[in-house]
Amino acid sequence: MRTFSCQDNQPSCANTFCSFAQSKIYITPQNQSPWNYLRGIQRASKRPASSLKGFATQFASLDAPDDVRSSHALDLLADIYAEEGTEKEKAGQALDLLAKYDPIRMNYWSYRKSLLGLESNTMSASIVA
Question: What are the backbone dihedrals phi and psi of residue 77, each rounded to the nearest 5 degrees, phi first?
Fold first, then answer.
């Protein structure tokens, strides 16, 4: 297993680790592990989350909500839009899509949306006896 151990956070080293994680994501976009690894490299190298926006939009786009290939890409996009500050509505849209593609965590996505100061329009799943 690879670990991020670059000296002085060298950009070329971080790029190598990012490329490794991205190659694994291309193989299985719904595998959460390489997405977490990619985000860890991004944080360790002190890059903004927005540096991964182009990559994430290859797997999910708010413009094509029926063509989402990875819920993890949507989660990353929600974080990116929230980080950008002026894109809170887009972050909310991504979280609404997550409630559709990952309904088991619907209440979590609603909570995340409330942290942005946005009203949740997703309905909690009711238990049918």
Answer: -65, -40
Q: Where are the domains of the chain?
A: 1-47, 50-118
Contacts (Cβ under 8 Å, ≥6 apart) of 105: 98, 99
Give the separation between CA 85 and CA 77, rounded to whole angstroms.
Answer: 13
- Rounded CA-CA distance 95/11 in Å is 31
pLDDT tens readout for residues 65-106: 999 999 999 999 999 999 988 889 999 999 999 999 999 999
- Ramachandran region, residue 4 (left: φ > 0; alpha: ψ -120 to 50; beta: rest): beta
Cα 22 from Cα 62, distance rounded (Å): 21
Rounded to whole angstroms, the Cα distance separating 48 from 114 reads: 23
